[in-house]
């Protein structure tokens, strides 16, 4: 689990939400997410392959995965309720 140091990311492209009548999509799916993070994915995969080859300990463990899932679920609860979520050690959705 990352405990200190900055986390940097670039802002997402601006998107506007509009309600429209249901109809078939005429444009191809947008791939900005993949292209935006392509270099990061390649770096992550290269590090994973090197870790497997060298039998090194992973940088993130199961607890990191559990905490990431809790954060994602808390974000969904916050979006649904419109209120902040106090993410205490015993919090569950």
List keywords for this structure.
93 residues; 2 helices; flat; Gfo/Idh/MocA-like oxidoreductase C-terminal domain-containing protein; Gfo/Idh/MocA-like_OxRdtase_C
General description of the model:
The protein is mostly helical. Among the domains are: 30 residues; 33 residues, no CATH class. The longest helix is centred in the middle third of the chain and has 23 residues. 0% of the residues are buried.
Annotate the secondary structure layout:
Layout: H1 32-54, H2 62-81
Q: Biggest sheet, in brief?
A: none
Strand pairing plus helix content: what structural class? Answer: mainly alpha
Envelope shape = flat
Low-pLDDT sequence parts: none
Strand content bin: under 5%
Straight-line N-to-C gap: 21 Å
Number of helices: 2
Helix content class: 40-55%
Order of helices and strands: HH
The overall average pLDDT, rounded, is 82
The overall strand count is 0
Rg value:
18 Å
Quick rundown:
This protein is mostly helical. It has helices at 32-54, 62-81. The chain is flat, with a radius of gyration of 18 Å.
């Amino acid at each position: 689990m990352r405990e200190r140091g900055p986390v940097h990311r670039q802002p997402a492209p601006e998107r506007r939400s509009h309600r429209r009548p249901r109809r078939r999509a005429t444009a191809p799916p947008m791939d900005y997410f993949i292209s935006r993070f392509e270099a990061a994915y390649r770096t992550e995969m290269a590090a994973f392959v090197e870790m497997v080859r060298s039998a090194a300990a992973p940088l993130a463990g199961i607890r990191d995965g559990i905490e990431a899932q809790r954060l994602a679920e808390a974000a969904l609860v916050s979006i649904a309720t419109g209120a902040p979520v106090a993410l205490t050690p015993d919090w569950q959705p």
